[in-house]
């Protein structure tokens, strides 16, 4: 993930349970170009008083120099010069802000088809996806594609935001038609939680405060919806997961005999004394200690970056996975997955790629394609022989080394991967594991 436009860095997770206690919600925007994603985030920041006065003054000055008759709030997130020149978002920009009720990390993702992979990156960790639609244009192919991707990424909440209602005279019938079209589409995707809002991000209608311009709308403001939506951290998952990023062994001074395994708890809770298994070797041991830079802990929870010490001298290296013994993942060299292809070349059978899964990268070869999904009709083409740019399909992969994997439906971190072109090092696809070979899978 690029950090070129990381205007306000999200905080590192530091202490056990902090995010849960304060109710952190990760939000990603999605939709077509010019639907107003960046403007909406700017409006949320402005109306919730989450920007400094000098930032606003700079945006106002830039807007005036461009000849706008309004303050272009999109400039608060469009940080690259090329973004400002073209008037489109290219890279993922993150903004962090808080209200008295909740903390938020907002990911402003591109709407341009060329940058679909950036949108997938921004949405991959989201608790809630905002699908913006221009009230004048209704659902487009790109907004349908983004909704499909949010569904495949299993973002728990998908919220339709019909923007630019001021440009259609705040017409209720326009909103109602788009809402019905979206709900029918979302029903086919079996999205668990859907909400819809009519807004004007430019004017501020129904964003932070409900608007008198749409008396026919009796719901809450968008911000109130964001403040009360349940975060993904509150969804129960079975199994503890700790991919090893780095082996710490100083071999000097008072730490001569120290051996620790650094990484991030991707799921569950690790406790001192807990029985664990190291994968893919399958060796069992116990957690002897949990350390951070200047202290030790009795436990570590999802999202916390720590160093684990183990009770036995077992062979553990970067890319291994430490898991609880009762709900350990499957170790396999053959996986099936839903893949979003993100480059101009095609994905085809017998193609050789690199597959990066948590902290391990292995060689992979495409065994075959199962089906290609039409993002407009949701029909599957079982005769497809390749995937093109931005197409989605099921793919079978054979790996050079065994990986400890979960189904994406149960663990997002250990159930997902990226595909890399071995010649260029570029990311060319993102995948969500649906099973191993021989197991029924669906898009």
Can you walk me through this structure?
The two termini are 25 Å apart. Strands 2-3-1-4-5-6 form a six-stranded mixed β-sheet, sandwiched between helices. A six-stranded antiparallel barrel has the order 7-8-14-11-10-15. The chain is of the alpha+beta class and 443 residues long. The protein is built from eight helices and 24 strands. It has helices spanning 18-22, 37-47, 53-65, 81-86, 116-123, 141-152, 172-189, 222-228, and strands at residues 25-31, 93-99, 102-108, 128-134, 157-163, 193-198, 241-248, 260-264, 269-271, 275-279, 283-291, 296-297, 299-301, 305-310, 321-324, 330-341, 347-348, 352-357, 360-373, 380-381, 386-387, 392-405, 416-420, 427-435.
Detail the topology: elements first, then pairings.
Layout: H1 18-22, E1 25-31, H2 37-47, H3 53-65, H4 81-86, E2 93-99, E3 102-108, H5 116-123, E4 128-134, H6 141-152, E5 157-163, H7 172-189, E6 193-198, H8 222-228, E7 241-248, E8 260-264, E9 269-271, E10 275-279, E11 283-291, E12 296-297, E13 299-301, E14 305-310, E15 321-324, E16 330-341, E17 347-348, E18 352-357, E19 360-373, E20 380-381, E21 386-387, E22 392-405, E23 416-420, E24 427-435
Parallel strand pairs: 1-3, 1-4, 4-5, 5-6
Antiparallel strand pairs: 2-3, 7-8, 7-15, 8-14, 9-13, 10-11, 10-15, 11-12, 11-14, 16-22, 16-24, 17-21, 18-19, 18-23, 19-20, 19-22, 23-24
